[in-house]
Amino acid sequence: MSKKYFEGETKSQRRARKEREKLSKKASLVKSPVIKTVLPTPVVVTNVEVNLKNSAFVLGNGTSRAPISPVDLKPYGTIYGCNALYREFRPDHLIAVDTKMIKEITSTGYHLENRVWTNPNRYSREIPKINLFNPNLGWSSGPSALNLASEHNYEIIYILGFDYEGVGKNHELVNNVYSGTVNYKNINDRATYYGNWTRQTSTCIKKYPRIKYIRVIKDQSSFVPDVLIGLPNLTHVTVEKFMKNFNL
After folding, report:
1. Over the chain, what HEC string results?
2. Is there a contact between 216 and 238 (Cβ–Cβ < 8 Å)?
3. Can you tell me the distance from the alpha carbon of 191 to that of 235, in angstroms, rounded to the nearest whole number?
4. CA distances from residue 229 to 225, 232, 248 in whole angstroms, order as listed
């Protein structure tokens, strides 16, 4: 059997994960009661607050958002999208930090007529009419989009397609609606380790305690990272409930 690994996972992160798995396996074999640290249960709400005056939608590209059309969200708020979303929909703000994606986007001239944001570097600084993050947090596209929306001071920010965990039987495969297309991994490639994404997301949410964040998840059993549990201004709602409340 091949060893389970995640692309992008550092040695220290891998050691920590394997130690957790080892301890978990040992605990399952012990018949006597085992004392465990109990984390707060993530808040999953049954109704979604709809605020037509001061809301934003931040769209990651995890497969959980596939049933929701970005076009249908337009009447309800400002849309912040990532990377290849521009191929099928024009968000109010497009965020891409990978140089390959920026080259693809700018080669079409999309940035000349639309708001595109990226990290400043030797390549991007030479691109006319592109928006550069200042300061540069060095974050991935999804968390960068969330931070940009947060800087724009909305009352409610809905987070879609931030799945983190991979797909497949053991969640080992890449989870992205654009898998298998140009500048993306193939559908059978290994998932990238999500630790940096969850840490950046958590950091952003903690920075803006007055903003209400609502993360849309596939269903009640969806993965909720430890760092996102217990945040007072973050709740979760299923795709089904989200669509029902927005009449989608």
Report:
1. CCCCCCECCCHHHHHHHHHHHHHHHHHHHCCCCCCCCCCCCCCECCCCCCCCCCEEEEECCCHHHCCCCHHHHHHHCEEEEEHHHHHCCCCCEEECCCHHHHHHHHHCCHHHHCCEEECCCCCHHHCCCCEECCCCCCCCHHHHHHHHHHHCCCCEEEEECCCCCCECCCCCECCCCCCCCCCCCCCCCECECCHHHHHHHHHHHHHCCCCEEEEEECCCCCCCCHHHCCCCCEEEEEHHHHHHHCCC
2. yes
3. 25
4. 7, 9, 28
CA 45 to chain CA centroid, Å, is 19
Distance CA 160, CA 144 (A): 14
Residue 235 identity (one-letter amino acid): T
- Model pTM score: 0.82
56, 155 Cβ separation under 8 angstroms: no
The pLDDT profile of the chain, 248 residues, written as one tens digit per residue, is: 444 555 666 676 666 666 666 655 554 444 434 434 444 556 676 566 666 569 999 999 999 999 999 999 999 999 999 999 999 999 999 999 999 999 999 999 999 999 999 999 999 999 999 999 999 999 999 999 999 999 999 999 999 999 999 999 999 999 999 999 999 999 999 999 999 999 999 999 999 999 999 999 999 999 999 999 999 999 999 999 999 999 99
